[in-house]
Amino acid sequence: MDILNIVKRECIDIDRSISNKAECLQKVAKLAKHSAVLENISEEEILTALQRREEMGSTGFENGIAIPHCRLKEVKEFVVGIITIPDGVNFDAIDGKLSNIIMFIVAPQSKTNEHVRMLSTISNILRIKDACKEMLSASSSVALLESFLRYNRDEVDISKTGERNLFHITVTNDDLFQNILQVVTSIEPASLSIVEAKQASEYLAKLPIFAGFWNDIESASNKIIIAQIDKALTNETIRRIEDVTGNLDECTEVSVSVQEIFYSAGRLQS
Predict the structure, then answer these.
(1) Secondary structure of residue 37 in the 3-state scheme
(2) pTM for the whole thing?
(3) Each residue of 139-149: pLDDT tens digit?
(4) In CATH, which of 2.30.110.10, 3.40.50.2300, 3.40.50.300, 3.30.70.120 is domain 164-260?
């Protein structure tokens, strides 16, 4: 995924005049229209698609970030842009805080997998505090783009071998699970599945021999991410997971194991 070419230089702006979410979406539609990719799509069509997506749930996330996005059947290429709003705007963010970095995506309706990976990649970059701080301090659209691209780690220089490793990532913390899932998705795994399972103590507590050991435990589920990832990306994947968890050897809510695959064929659609 070539972020350098997907983020459109003509779709980047610093705007101090936006005062509410409705104005922000209008600005997104107007700015997106600057791209030649959308020359046959009207500003009204883009705005309507963005509004429909927001009706499904706000794209305002935590820590001042919003990623409004939409899919259009007539669009053939991705258009990604950036707007910073120094004073912030109420974007109905899940943490109730104002949003001041708005990254938007107008995507082809037919490219669901690429759209998901792009959302994950952007989210991973914007989770880096230094990246957001530098973007907000940018005084021009050129500096803003450079700040974003400086923290992009999506492009990995590898020689594809076709060989894969199997990752089992067990997570007991929902917030960590969501962040790690975004990391794995951005790596572009050959296959990806999620399994939910209870902790072993819940089963052991039901065996007569272990009665009384775990009477006070709370019911909790583990989520297991199972992914086939190109072998050349193994170390990079682990590094990115540790960006979320810290040192895995010291983390008590995430377990990662990697196995070499003897045989693998086929590819699962996400």
Answers:
(1) helix
(2) 0.71
(3) 999 999 999 98
(4) 3.30.70.120
